[in-house]
Design goal:
Elements lengths: L2 H12 L6 H4 E5 L4 E3 L7 E2 L4 H4 L8 H11 L8 H7 L8 H4 L6 H9 L10 E5 L17 H10 L30 H17 L2 E5 L7 H12 L7 E5 L6 H10 L6 E6 L4 H7 L5 H13 L3 E8 L7 H15 L5 E6 L13 H18 L5 H16 L10 H19 L3 H4 L4 H5 L2
Parallel strand pairs: 1-4, 4-5, 5-6, 6-7, 7-8, 8-9
Antiparallel strand pairs: 1-2, 2-3
Bound molecules: iron/sulfur cluster (SF4).
């Protein structure tokens, strides 16, 4: 069944706003006790006292229960705007609501549709972050998710004169993202392991660990060791988001863990190549990253490449897609399965800040790949590519609360000029295609 048929024949019949992720999926940041249904809605807080007696509260919060009720009634929860925006582009456009639902069975979706909104639901898929320790400080990331970003702000102070940074991503340390030190007892981490050892290791189909950089967290290896000590006790598929830029010993441990884990998927991020990638993802060594990605694939690890589509990646995004497709001739079609996640925050890094003629030019380059190589892609990848091409050509603003374009342009210039000084980089040398436009901002 194709995605559109699934939407109209299965999902919309449950309700026109129904999404399985609201019941069966969660992203939980254990360092701060925040939870959400998927990456798009803003996260909210889990009660640190009540979670000690009911670890399922890590997912089943009063906020999510209200959003489930709205979906059952065909209402649009406000936090899911990302999907509504895609769907409002036309009846044939496929939002993440479809991809986040079609991984569950019809029985599971029916059960969710008919469940009392106030009831607790057992997770099938979960993403957690143990802490924010990370060796990278990517331009579109911030101190909430990276200890290296924290160090930038501690050493250099907040970024100055940004007018669209409403969430203060670049001016505050976001210490609320990491409430507990390395040696502190963290009730959320304890709740997770309690839930894991009693129920989750049986009910979860997939557990994905994100960060920070998870391979730097002792809690990741505590979990991996649990699998080593309890072989065959859990069928949960483990997936790890990794920048693949850490010490070689961590890559070695991932290769070794593949031997006793039921399965291992590694999701890494990159959306451009060479110097441009290293500019955007500060800390990256592109060749080291690529070699680690290939090594894991050869060792039997399932590999994925999450591309965060921002203004600076579009020049060499086609090169990266071509590089992946070329490598598939050797490593198979499942090598580095890619997703194209369109950046909304920070809005001034959105591809929509670029002039329309540039966006059209990049859309045309992507169309060439689509027309000539789509048979080498998965259907999911084809859909993502098609969606991005249309997005670049037609969407005007990154999201409904985005500032008007002059303010976004102001922040683009102000941010990258400070980023250059702090990170010892040079925008116009790395992106000569933008040099004239950038100097006139
Ligand atoms: S943002 Fe989309 S995919 Fe995420 S929970 Fe909402 S409807 Fe589902």
């Amino acid at each position: 069944m194709d995605d559109l048929t699934y939407k109209t024949e299965i999902l919309d019949k449950l309700s026109p706003t129904f999404c399985g992720a609201k019941w069966y999926n969660a992203t939980i940041w254990l360092g701060s006790g925040m939870t959400t249904s998927c990456h798009h809605p803003l996260p909210h807080k889990v009660d640190p006292i009540e979670v000690e007696t009911n670890p399922k509260l890590l997912h089943n919060t009063p906020e999510k229960k209200e959003q489930r009720r709205q979906m059952q009634c065909g209402e649009r929860p406000q936090g899911c705007e990302y999907c509504w925006k895609i769907e409002d582009m036309g009846p044939n456009f496929i939002s993440d609501r479809i991809y986040k639902s079609n991984i569950y069975t019809q029985e599971e979706l029916d059960a969710a549709r008919n469940s009392p909104p106030n009831s607790d639901t057992d997770l099938r898929t979960l993403e957690i972050a143990f802490d924010r320790t990370c060796n990278f400080a990517c331009s579109y990331c911030n101190p909430a998710f990276s200890s290296t970003w924290v160090r930038d702000l501690k050493q250099n102070g907040g970024y100055q004169e940004l007018v669209s940074d409403g969430r203060n991503h670049f001016t505050h340390l976001h210490d609320s993202s990491q409430l507990y030190g390395v040696t502190d007892r963290n009730p959320y981490v304890e709740a997770f392991f309690k839930w894991w050892e009693t129920d989750l290791h049986r009910t979860l189909r997939e557990l994905r660990i994100t960060g920070g950089e998870p391979t730097m967290s002792p809690d990741l290896w505590r979990l991996v060791d649990w699998f080593k000590d309890n072989v065959d006790k859990s069928k949960t598929k483990l997936a790890i988001n990794s920048n693949l830029g850490g010490k070689q010993e961590f890559i070695d441990r991932l290769v070794e863990a593949r031997e006793y884990l039921p399965s291992l998927d590694v999701y890494t991020s990159c959306e451009s190549t060479g110097a441009r990638a290293q500019y955007i993802r500060d800390g990256l060594d592109y060749d080291y990253w690529w070699n680690n990605l290939c090594r894991l694939s050869k060792a039997g690890v399932s590999t994925h490449c999450m591309m965060t589509i921002n203004a600076l990646c579009l020049e060499t995004l086609p090169d990266l897609i071509n590089q992946i497709l070329d490598k598939r001739k050797e490593l198979g079609k499942d090598f580095a399965v890619f997703s194209l996640n369109i950046l909304r925050f920070p809005s001034f890094q959105s591809p929509l800040v670029l002039p329309l003629d540039m966006r059209n030019q990049y859309a045309t380059a992507l169309e060439v790949i689509y027309k000539t190589r789509s048979l080498e892609m998965h259907q999911f990848e084809q859909g993502q590519l098609e969606r991005l091409i249309t997005y670049l050509r037609t969407v005007e603003t990154p999201h409904s609360e985005a500032f008007e374009m002059p303010k976004l342009h102001n922040d683009f210039k102000k941010f990258y000029s400070q980023y250059d000084v702090r990170r010892k980089k040079h925008f116009s040398s790395v992106f000569p295609e933008f040099a004239e436009w950038y100097s006139n901002l």
